[in-house]
Amino acid sequence: MLIRKQRGWEIPEMRATPEALFWRRREVLVGLGLGGAMLLTRPGRARAVAADDPSGTLYPFPRNERYQLDRALTDPDVASRYNNFYEFGSHKEIWEAAQTLVIRPWEIRIDGMVEKEMTIAIDDLLAKMPREERLYRHRCVEAWAMAVPWSGFPMAELVKLARPLGSATYVRMETFLDPDAAPGQRQVWYPWPYVESVTIAEAMNELAFLVSGVYGKPLPRQHGAPLRLVLPWKYGFKSIKSIVRISFTDQRPVSFWEEIQGSEYGFWANVNPEVAHPRWSQASEALIGTSERVPTQLYNGYGDYVAALYAGMEGEGERLFM
């Protein structure tokens, strides 16, 4: 007899909102006489798909039903207007400023400790990859959260394409550098370009996801078009946006926020409600677009997938959770 153990983030299928009803929810609200004000106040423009993104015909990607949620998807208008992207400003309302980013042509350089270095255009990369949609929870270090249908491909597939040498132990990622398009990069006190890094083991974990779309369409610029990383068990600042370079190395890189304030933002940055940020608690999180606040879970609820990656490391003096 096969006994299936329910994972901590899963809910019974009978409690899940049917997909068709979710996408028709505004029609239902209007029919009930509840949606007029909501429709009048919809921001709309924040979700506009870039006309210069030729990948649009690929979407929507087929959904991988292995990855489920214990909460409703965040309203796409809310998710598109509440973003961190320091290249365009230190406030949350950067979505309009981010529209100056030119996303075609766009190439990703793959180099370092690999069998053969390469440069590949984003559309050629997407053509090579097994594309899918996944529902993930996203937890920001600032104690807010959202639930998002990301479209992309497993990071493990990129690692296989790169063919790193056996001595490579880290993946270093770098975003674009263009102060003319991104005024935040004119702030000289930040160490531009944005750099982030994971271990090869983390990159090969099934949850690590390179993302090119969201809500069934190409990524808007404010979400990190045309390619970003999503690591749902880590705080959001580890999920680098608008990637232009992926390097394999045997030396641990120093990440953007780690360089700025290493006492607050460490290399590992795994979610843990018991480890407070020096300036605020991480015990709970606000679900953006709602009035709800919920308890935070260890590894953001994905411990079944990733906890083994870090077994015994705390005894080695590693600061795994901030």
Task: Provide a compact summary of the structure.
The chain has nine helices and twelve strands. With 322 residues, it is α+β, with helices and mostly antiparallel strands.
Keywords:
322 residues; alpha+beta; Sulfite Oxidase, Chain A, domain 2; 12 strands
Task: Kindly describe this structure.
16% of the residues lie in helices and 20% in strands. With 322 residues, the chain is of the alpha+beta class. The termini are far apart.
Radius of gyration: 20 Å
**Considering DSSP H and I runs of 4 or more, what fraction of the residues is helical?**
10-25%
Can you tell me the overall shape? globular
CATH-assigned homologous superfamily of the largest domain? Oxidoreductase, molybdopterin-binding domain
Structural class by SSE content:
alpha+beta
Q: What is the CATH domain class of the largest domain?
A: Alpha Beta
For the record, the CATH architecture of the largest domain stands as Alpha-Beta Complex
How many β strands by DSSP?
12
Per DSSP, the total helix count is 9
If you average the pLDDT, what whole number results?
A: 88
Query: Proportion of β residues?
Result: 15-25%
CATH-defined topology of the largest domain: Sulfite Oxidase, Chain A, domain 2
Element-level helix/strand string: HHHHEEHEEHEEHEEEEHEEH
Number of domains: 2
Describe the largest sheet.
Answer: 7 strands, mixed
Distance between the termini: 42 Å
pLDDT under 50 segments (min length 5)?
Answer: 8-48
